[in-house]
Amino acid sequence: MDRRLFLWSIVAALAGFLFGFDTVVISGAEKKLQSLWDLSAVMHGLAMGSALWGTVLGSMVGGWPTDHFGRKKTLLWVGSLFLIGSLWSALTNEVYSFMVARFIGGIAIGISTVAAPLYISEISPPAHRGRLAGMFQFNIVFGILVAFGSNYLLAGLGENSWRWMLGVMAVPSVIYTLACLVIPESPRWLIARKGDRAQGEAVLKLIHPGASAAEIGVLADSMKPEGPRQTAGGFWSSRLKTPILLAFLIAFFNQLSGINAILYFAPRIFGMTGSENALAQSIGIGITNLIFTFVGLWLIDRLGRRTLLYIGSFGYILSLGLCATAFFTWAPQFRAASSAVDVKGAVDSLETANPARVAKMQEDLAKKKSALVAATAEPKSGATPVTLADDASPASVKAVANEVLSQSSKAAGSGGMMVLICIFAFIASHAIGQGAVIWVFISEIFPDRYRAAGQALGSATHWVFAAGLTTVFPLMMAKLAPGVVFLIFTGMMVLQLIWVKFMVPETKGVPLEEMEQKLGIR
Known about the structure:
Elements: H1 3-25, H2 30-36, H3 41-61, H4 63-68, H5 71-91, H6 95-123, H7 129-133, H8 135-154, H9 161-167, H10 170-179, H11 187-194, H12 197-207, H13 213-222, H14 228-231, H15 241-256, H16 259-264, H17 266-271, H18 278-300, H19 305-329, H20 331-351, H21 358-376, H22 394-412, H23 415-432, H24 434-444, H25 451-479, H26 482-503, H27 515-518
């Protein structure tokens, strides 16, 4: 593989790093922001989901600049939007301004999921297309890992640690934007959309340095604009019903696995089992994601896209099903343990609080003390029922919480570890299956003229369901038992397995120009 081709793919795929970082960095700040701005479950969900609603808009409109201004210019604007969103969200002082800033960052994410995979797939030879286009997913995962690690390292910086968590993304945003200046434009866009065959052939020569002039000419001919018969009916036509349905369903099932909700709220989910190391455990999610993304990228051009979706589906079903079982089996013990952790955290926060916020934090501590008393009163909590006087000292309250945590954690036995292992297994299944496949698959199945529109459709579907699920997830966890939520995700993955079995074609190694025939597009 030519070194320059690899470098260009890495640069374009760095949009995925910013995507992954921006998506997950909020997980380290969300509990702090909920307390700081006294957000209800509904407003909390809206604030956390604001970036994802931005991705919906970005993915819906992303095909237009990608087609009209080119893949390269669009990627440059993506970097600029990431920079604006990160600095704004770090400097804001109230929730509505915060939501606007996160929305802008979300627009950048949405456009990047259209432009970056499209660019990489269009410069890649068929034999390497899966691995090169899959680098976008690898960078998403790498960004997620760095965000989890960054959150963990910055968590000790006091009340404004959340500002540092969100603002640090400005550094990779600048690096990415400058790096985009060195990549060439997509030869397919130059020839098929701009009509600049000479420049398109010049880029093809860079991609295929050993090819003769005649071979470059043949490649350029295959990228010529499609004729009237081929474009009749436009994008929303029966001719394209198969790739449209495939793009919609792969994005739909991707999000109904619960992946984005679990990534956004990973520390909270681990905290629900009584874990006091939720941020550190979240780093484990990032490491698992990274390792198994490597595995997925190594396998995607060997086993194929369909086989990886099979593997991922079985992994999803097993891990989510067992996670639901754990939450059903040890529900009382988990409630007592997590209530104890909440009380300890509230006491620690009160001891270092800004004087202006002491009254509000005392009110918050009172609510958590009441929840702890109620949780230990449950017959199977594993803890001795406790009472906490209103005037009890912080030290005595913390001592009681420590004892409850010890008793309930002991009663839960391996329950907390089972949830941890199941979440890691879920992440591994996603990384090998849907994570490795989705952006590659969508970028392969549409004809040249409609590839940007098709990528936008898949991306928009992905982000509509991601935004909707993340927005309602706090409410779901407040109204439903955690086991029920994970059981819903399990059922959706059973449906995905059926879809893979009966509808998904294999696209491994098929030249983009031959994909229409394979999918029955006439």
